[in-house]
Amino acid sequence: MDDDCDEAVDEGLPECTPCEPNPCLNGATCAVRDSTAFSCACTTGFVGDLCGDTCEVSPAYPARPEGGANEENLVRSAALFASTRRDDGMVALCDGACSSAFAADGQRCGDTSKAPVFFSALEAAGQRWRADWANRGARRIDRIEIYAVRGTEAASLDGAQILVDDFEVATYPAGEAGAAFVFEPPLYGSSVEVRKTGGSLLLGLAEVEVWSEREAPAMDVAFQGAVRSSSVFSPNEVDRSAGAGVSADAGATRTVDGRADTEMATKAFLRGGSLALEGQAWPYDTGNQDEAPLIGRDSAWWLLRLGRGQRIRSLQIHRGSVPTALDGAQVFFAVDGVLEATPRFVLPAGGEAIEVLRPATPVADVTAVKIASAVDATAAPGDPSQALRIREVRVFADVPARGAGPLRDLSTRARPTSSIDGLRVRAVGETIDGSVATGDGAEGIPAWLRFAFDEAHDVRGLEVHQRTDYPGTFFYSPPGSGCPSRPLCGDSYGGCSFRGFGSVIAQVDELGGAVGAPVGTLDWEHHQSFAFERRGAAFEIRKSGSQSVYTAACSVGYQTESFVHVREARLLGYWGSGVAPLMDYARAGNGAVATHSPGLTGNDASFAIDAWRGWPQATTGSGDQELRVDLARPVRAERIAIYGVDSMATFEATLEVRVDGGEWVTVTTLPQRTNHVIDLPARRLVDAVRLRKTTGVLSVYELEVLAPANY
Q: Is 209 in the same domain as 318?
């Protein structure tokens, strides 16, 4: 054993450690890296390898210059990511590229001659630095401290956005050497990002600190949860131009999708029927009528059903593009299934973009959260202020035990298929992103939309929003019936609801065979809820040919078309294993964007990320081929799945991922087979994936980037 660090073995003496005696100066802590290497964690005001140099930095938050006794800096144990890293040799203490870790090394000194700092490269699209601790759950965030670089590039932080889980919470003030952003009540989240979206300056950071008062990790139990709203607004209700609003649904699921670029909106009237009221030309969905759990008055509302009781610590409600739409809104809890008589919170007029609502003590056994407009729909019919607009709702609770999690929207992890694979413009994958999906059949040949999973889950119900925005078709009148001609879609019958009329909701096996009795049948209502308890891995909406709709004017019955048209279909339930399966962050519905070159007409790059394995993207096969998918945010990817067209379409394609600093890392070269599942060697933050090959067509049905859905 080497006792004196001379690399010679000595017997009978303690093992050598480079930290004894402590080589670090000025009270610094020494950490052993290996038998001969060490690093020093400097105390405030000292920098350098041994902490022998001085660099005076005023604390951004003087009240707690090094954090409180019960606080921890979340950045020090986070995964780090930067979109680019400066690597031009101009920063003296950057050993190679200016690493993202230099903004999390404990040294606030922004003097580039004394301490390493992070610098991005300059990109027209902007730059970002990110710290992510999602694998540890959501954590309380009391304060974010940021320290700038000094010298000629001291303005590199001016106007930078500060984001928590991709939602902006602050802007860095111009001309400041350091800034502290204090949150009272505290925020919760699992990542912090500093972002610059333009300009001619690099993004420069001396240090980022995220201080958290120590408490157990939390979980956002609203994320991709079981949500509903009193009504759904579509642009078609005020704009009847051809095609308007076909992909612009604003349903409640937009409030729990983790995206800052989507929002929900309700209607601004009580109920459908009168064309005299503003915004009621197209009665998509019902109006704002009170439904269980009841608040006792008609108004626009948003509802999150948790099923199993959760212990709630905090709510974060993000106002939408019309912030005043939430002025005076009331927030109710249902405890053990019973809605409280009075609201827990009332949102102020002219309030914050993010309303943080924190009970004095956590509330146990919460089974639902309801947000209701302050405007009584009966007293003010058609008043635009009735409508609710919400960008996101986050409900942070204690992390539930395995098998005790909340009710979830299972369809976000489903693999949708349909009977109409050839009609690509109405993709079945759109049943879970608010656009129109369809199944096509003929007499004696069913039309169907199916959701399949990799494992069985405990399903508790289905929410269906039928299509209502397709004018110009008619009921079929039986020959010689004398029945008057009636529009199939349009004002009189509430849009295209009849295209789903008569469809059966059923559990099926992997071949589409029925399992047990059907659980329900669609009628002509715009929105329908089906409650049932089934454990299964596949469910479908099936229509066996045209259906008869009987009215007083046509006793023999009008005939509907054989299509199934659905705006959204949501399966609700509990994850079968008690743990949510990995989430595909490469889906377009999760904000991903696909490009390819050179593209083949009719086989768009977006087909590779549409959640549907029915139609592929494809390149021309001429020259260098590439398919690239950019994620909406960096994620801790664990697995990449690729579903190819045939064994040659991806053969010898190189799979690469983009990691910290914009570096492209080769994962593997794909062998000659159709489908591929690749486990990533390390859980690094990944923000883009690409396939590249030099010969032959590159064609993929679906590319998935799978990661834990922690935020």
A: no
